[in-house]
Amino acid sequence: MKILVIGGAGFIGSHFIESVSSKNNIELVIVDDFSTGNIENISSLPLTQEVRIVTGDFTELANLPEEHYDKIYNFAAKIDARSELISDYMNNVCITAKSIGNLKHNGEYHFMSSCAVYGCIENAKETDSPATNTLYGLSKSHSEDLINECVENKFIYRLGNVYGERQDGTRESGVISIILNCIKNNISFKMYNEGNSTRDYIYVKDVIGAILTDKEPGTYNVGTGFGLKTSEIVHPILAEYENGGFRKETDKLTLNTSKLRNLGWKPSSMTPVSFLKNSIMDHKNV
After folding, report:
1. Can you list the domains of the chain with their CATH numbers?
2. Three-state SS across the chain?
3. Global pTM?
């Protein structure tokens, strides 16, 4: 079986690679431009005829080791939900459009979409119409439209706010990793909107579990189904922080995950606070 993983050296993609690289009878091609991905995330992989890494912007690659694949997993994206750059939108949509052409007839296409397609909503269901209020969410929604139009066996994952090991805390998105980066580097954390922004946070290894769960083609929400305010994460961890004032962002966004749970998947007991406490302890013990 030939598998193409786009963005396989990134935060979520590398965890997926870690889970499938040891399986038998697969040939794995990993494409990453390493703009946000890190080669160290996949440095333990044995580079053999069955596991190959291609460096470059997927939209500009002239050739891949194979032209068509049995399964494609698309983890690649410019992920800043506050970005208003048309180039970021184009990058996300163009990767999807081009990669669809690399799928074998009746192959599986797995797309990492986002809860951002819903806009501001609580208990969002997969049947709810997209009502995004960001260009990032629009890039995901339009990518979904392409997949739904062109691919029969498609698996679309509308991910909550993913956190966990290997997430880069120096960037604008990912509040859990930003908090951790501030602690490790003795930087003051800025909390915006009085910490009232509510999100459905999901641990990265639970996302991988959702992807690997046996299921029919379709669209699946991947989250805990519960919302956490930023303040509920910050207060148990930080004694002091800065008031960042107001910043335009979605107020509340939580997911209904019953569709995936009915298949036997459920998130682990990991929470943003427990992850941060464990990570801080590990950092102190280094």
Report:
1. 2-285 (3.40.50.720)
2. CEEEEECCCCHHHHHHHHHHCCCCCCEEEEEECCCCCCHHHHCCCCCECCEEEEECCHHHCCCCCCCCEEEEEECCCCCCCCCCCHHHHHHHHHHHHHHHCCEEEEEEEEEEEEHHHHCCEEEECCCCCCCCCCHHHHHHHHHHHHHHHHCCEEEEEEECEEECCCCCCCCCCCHHHHHHHHHHCCCCCEEEHHHCCEECEEEHHHHHHHHHCCCCCEEEEECCCCCEEHHHHHCCCCCCCEEEECCCCCCEEEECCHHHHCCCCCCCCCCHHHHHHHHHHHHHHC
3. 0.95
